[in-house]
Amino acid sequence: NAGVTQTPKFQVLKTGQSMTLQCAQDMNHEYMSWYRQDPGMGLRLIHYSVGAGITDQGEVPNGYNVSRSTTEDFPLRLLSAAPSQTSVYFCASSYSQSGTGLETQYFGPGTRLLVL
Amino acid sequence: GIQVEQSPPDLILQEGANSTLRCNFSDSVNNLQWFHQNPWGQLINLFYIPSGTKQNGRLSATTVATERYSLLYISSSQTTDSGVYFCAVGSSQTGANNLFFGTGTRLTVIP
């Protein structure tokens, strides 16, 4: 298994540009999520999905869109990039069976985004 | 959301020393995980431990859910243990898979 993969590894954008961060997992996990990590802070949840066709907002959703057309893929779209979105973005996946221990989350390697 | 506080924020150890990292959380949880972020940024799950005690080699963790804290023990530390340790929690009210992270403990192990 490749686990959770993310592309690109690094991206520079100009303010106002749009882009899509890709995330894929090959573990047949129902649950997928996107976090951002800013310096000196823990990770914060942006959006999540409990299965294909189902998405919901996390703690910091503004400026981002997601969709989940397949179990494997969960892309994150930046609609109009702003310098405040400079961050490291992590995608994660797990089974969504509460109380079973299967919520153990697996993280991708991250995408480092710089918005000028 | 759930507030998560980790202590200490920074820790410097001599190789071979033991350490205890603490995680306090503000609400009842049914999901608690410890992660290690290595110097290259990769996040690795160490434990899923919403209650009780688990051990994995030189690492062990204990969560006392009724008192809303968890401890991560590192024994005989090695330089490869360096990095940031995060505690993350989730509850059924906010979605057990939706994790709230602390700000981490940065561990540096000196040879």
Short description:
The complex is a heterodimer of chains A (116) and B (111). Chain A has 116 residues and is an all-beta fold.
Structure description:
The complex is a heterodimer of chains A (116) and B (111). With 116 residues, chain A is an all-beta fold. Chain A has strands at residues 4-7, 10-13, 19-25, 31-37, 43-51, 54-57, 64-66, 76-78, 87-94, 106-107, 111-115. In chain A, strands 2, 4, 5, 6, 9, 10 and 11 form a 7-stranded mixed sheet that branches. Chain A has a 4-stranded antiparallel sheet with strand order 1-3-8-7, with no helix packed on it. The mean pLDDT of chain A is 93. In chain B, strands 2, 4, 5, 9, 10 and 11 form a 6-stranded mixed sheet that branches. Chain B has a 5-stranded antiparallel sheet with strand order 1-3-8-7-6, with no helix packed on it. Chain B is globular and about 45 Å long. In chain B, a hairpin with a 5-residue loop joins β4 and β5. Chain B is 0% helix and 56% strand. With 111 residues, chain B is mainly beta. The interface between A and B is medium-sized, with 27 and 26 residues.
Question: Secondary-structure map with pairings?
Answer:
The complex is a heterodimer of chains A (116) and B (111).
Chain A lengths: L3 E4 L2 E4 L5 E7 L5 E7 L5 E9 L2 E4 L6 E3 L9 E3 L8 E8 L11 E2 L3 E5 L1
Parallel strand pairs in A: 2-11
Antiparallel strand pairs in A: 1-3, 3-8, 4-5, 4-9, 5-6, 7-8, 9-10, 9-11
Chain B lengths: L3 E4 L2 E5 L4 E7 L5 E7 L5 E6 L3 E5 L2 E6 L4 E6 L8 E8 L9 E2 L3 E6 L1
Parallel strand pairs in B: 2-11
Antiparallel strand pairs in B: 1-3, 3-8, 4-5, 4-9, 6-7, 7-8, 9-10, 9-11
